[in-house]
Amino acid sequence: GPLANAVEGRQFTYWYFLAFQPGDNSSLFVIRAATILVVTVGFSALLASGRILAGVPGMVFIGIAYTLSTYHFFYDRLALADTLAGAVMLVAVYFSLRLGKRYSLWDAVFVGISLFTMVMFKLTTLAFFGIPVAAVLFIRNAGITWKQRITWAGTALLVAGGLFGSYILLAAWRGYNPF
């Protein structure tokens, strides 16, 4: 069934790659190309994060550094769950950094959805559920009260935890162990 690989801890990775299976000998190339689609979203989030942190020069610097990184040049083109999860983590970081510019619960919801998607691509990224907590503690914005910060982090964690908890309950109900 659709949850047969739940024990592997990479459920979205299987589903994502399944959507791009051509059924012939070009499947490895197609899956690698599909990985680049997700990496492009992560790269865009990284550029936007650089712009938030250091303006246009920061965006240009991080874009060049990422492009010239031999590690990313190699691994971002492989069909790995780590690559997909890392790209989605960059999206979560981007929405978290926006807390420094404005207070929006929609950003918190997007952080929660990104964290859930990241964990569903690779379960070992569960440790990055601390991103909203780090954002609340370390991103400074004088216009945001501590009550708003805690509400923001709580919203992000509630969305991520609620979605992940629903997946765990569904998998357990269907007889699969997601761990």
Question: Any overview of this molecule?
Answer:
The longest helix has 42 residues, at 27-68. The chain has helices at 11-18, 27-68, 70-75, 81-97, 105-121, 131-138, 146-173. It is 70% helix and 0% strand. By secondary structure, it is mainly alpha-helical.
List the helices and strands and how they pair.
Blueprint: H1 11-18, H2 27-68, H3 70-75, H4 81-97, H5 105-121, H6 131-138, H7 146-173
Helix pairs in contact: 2-4, 4-5, 4-6, 5-7, 6-7
Kindly estimate the percentage of residues that lie in beta strands according to DSSP.
under 5%
- CA gyration radius, whole angstroms: 18 Å
User: What is the H/E order?
Assistant: HHHHHHH
Give unreliable regions as ranges. Answer: none
Question: How would you summarize this macromolecular structure in one to three sentences?
Answer:
The chain contains seven helices and no strands.
What attributes characterize this protein structure?
7 helices; single chain; mainly alpha; 179 residues; 0% strand
